[in-house]
């Protein structure tokens, strides 16, 4: 296995603070995972910094409908440091758009297409932003909380 | 609909030669696409110049459905995600719930989870190896692998009554303890499997035709594997020493002595070889787990009937047969998950197909696709 | 039961051999029913059981049921798995490509009614009989290969009631519900059918 020991989140925080001091106050540990909350305008730069810090793998991109905003979450892992963390940013519901990270991690391609498909988030600079899971003629973005579809039957509440 | 020529377009290359580009549609119902994958292939003669997978033919909206079910009711849905290895999706989801709700497990439950998941790895790899072999024309290999797979399925059936959708791993433990004589049957299976696997090794991997079909086909470099987020045997076939059981040890895995097979060439052959060797290692883990396991409860004590975790986010991941399978859960304090997201390894691995298929012939395209081992329940969710 | 099923009893001795007298319908239905080549329309979990059915342990070849992925070679489409709205046009088109006479087996709860995906799913269809005429329904999530075996036998019984003459299906009570007639067939009829 890898010779490197697994890095703890405190060590990761120190490493992050010594290399990129401006990212330091945004880092926190929630439910046993390192989280970096960032402003969506600065997301692309922060992603580039984190990649040079050693986060060479993008695990997934997901969006969460938080009411008035959509939260976009990037799962990053580092092979050298053997640690994973999340990068989170909030975009407005009216015009959800963020710069694509496909140029940093090619893996983002399909994940961003999925977030576009299910939440309608525009990823600027994405090479091929189309629907991926649903047919191209589909209307609406089903994982939004306010999505309505006549063909969908809501399950009765039994609990 | 299986295979159809979509268009013929005259193309002139840089040197002025006129070529004809064929656009061929493969799927979504094609025996070699391992489910409902559709690939739009651009061909120059017989050589693939561009392959574009079209997915979503099995998109059922499981993530949306989970938002209207209680935490326990989501478990049967996770069975239907990765239907070749249901135990993994169960486990990944349950780990996320347990992290969210702060549930601590009895030790025996952890051991049982490890045992069923390693058995599941054998079953899943047998399916992957067999169907990938059938793509190269070796149907006899499929019959041998399916024989072993059926044995695992019989063990599972005895354990939880279902052949495919087990619903065995649940938040707070597992559903049942081992039935009588199950342990002996399992040990017998584990002692017989290495012989069967080495027979397959000789039968298929020693075959000149099979080697010619697999060697140097679909080569994935280590850099690409990392950049595209590949995981599991696909990444390990390219030399990425990345296995969550070792890199981010979870459950009781640190207590076992096992190796992680890693390839070096990154071709179809190495990926298949990694799967084959993982079966040996899974056998070792199961035997050790059966030895170490002690009697005790299999469910956490004092769990409420209706879980209401505190608001927050939790993510947990396990190493499934296809790679790192993660579940991201968001709770808003209600008995239902606010959002569930499955990080499916097959989805990420399938994204490599356009990269790997280019430059090979049409007949190699299915071999490359088979080596990525996509399961469309998980790709499309 | 067709005469051909009791060959030994109905064989009339004649000089130099034997003669069997039977209706052409019976002979053709018998041959159709005993070599049902299946179009495996496996999309999801049930497809695994469909594969298991044709391999070592269950071995469907012995019933004359043989999976052929090409719709033009097949008699019965086994729809195994959830059909999503994106997939449905492809399934319909494959069904249309199958030569007549053709039958459909809906395998598994998803193909029967949507099953676990009945509620809350914006994308899954609630049963394949929304657009295909289903002959045999098998429940289970997924059904065991033995259930599929039973479905093949049931379909064989159903085929025996058919006639090759257009519009002259033999007047015999159908053993299985027709699409959309599930409730009617579920109640025992007063005719008192034989099977």
Overview features:
heterotrimer, B: 381 residues, alpha+beta, four-stranded antiparallel beta sheet, three-stranded antiparallel beta sheet, 15 helices, 9 strands, 46% helix, 16% strand, globular, C: 195 residues, alpha/beta, five-stranded parallel beta sheet, two-stranded antiparallel sheet, 7 strands, 30% helix, 15% strand, disordered C terminus
Describe this structure as you would to a colleague:
The complex is a heterotrimer of chains A (159), B (381) and C (195). Chain A has three helices and seven strands, in the order H-E-E-H-E-E-E-E-H-E. Chain A is an alpha/beta fold and 159 residues long. In chain A, strands 1-2-5-4-3 form a five-stranded mixed beta sheet. In chain A, strands 6-7 form a two-stranded parallel ribbon. With 381 residues, chain B is of the alpha+beta class. In chain B, strands 1-2-3-4 form a four-stranded antiparallel beta sheet. Chain B starts with a strand and ends with a helix. In chain C, the strands form two sheets. Chain C has a five-stranded parallel beta sheet. In chain C, a hairpin with a 2-residue loop joins strand 1 and strand 2. In chain C, helix 2 (24-33) runs antiparallel to helix 6 (145-160) and helix 3 crosses helix 6. Residues 171-177 and 181-195 of chain C have low confidence and may be disordered. Chains A and B meet through strand 3 and helix 3 of A and strand 7, strand 8 and strand 9 of B.
Topology, element by element:
The complex is a heterotrimer of chains A (159), B (381) and C (195).
Chain A: H1 9-19, E1 27-30, E2 33-37, H2 43-53, E3 57-65, E4 69-78, E5 83-92, E6 97-99, H3 108-119, E7 122-124
Parallel strand pairs in A: 2-5, 6-7
Antiparallel strand pairs in A: 1-2, 3-4, 4-5
Chain B: E1 3-12, E2 18-26, E3 38-44, E4 47-54, H1 62-66, H2 75-79, H3 86-101, H4 107-135, H5 139-160, E5 169-170, E6 173-174, H6 182-205, H7 208-214, H8 222-227, H9 233-237, H10 244-247, H11 268-292, E7 312-319, E8 324-331, E9 337-343, H12 345-350, H13 353-357, H14 362-372, H15 376-380
Antiparallel strand pairs in B: 1-2, 2-3, 3-4, 5-6, 7-8, 8-9
Helix pairs in contact in B: 3-4, 4-5, 4-11, 4-14, 5-6, 6-11, 11-14
Chain C: H1 7-10, E1 11-14, E2 17-20, H2 24-33, E3 37-42, H3 45-53, E4 66-67, E5 76-80, H4 88-97, E6 103-107, H5 109-113, E7 136-138, H6 145-160, H7 182-186
Parallel strand pairs in C: 3-4, 3-5, 5-6, 6-7
Antiparallel strand pairs in C: 1-2
Helix pairs in contact in C: 2-6, 3-6
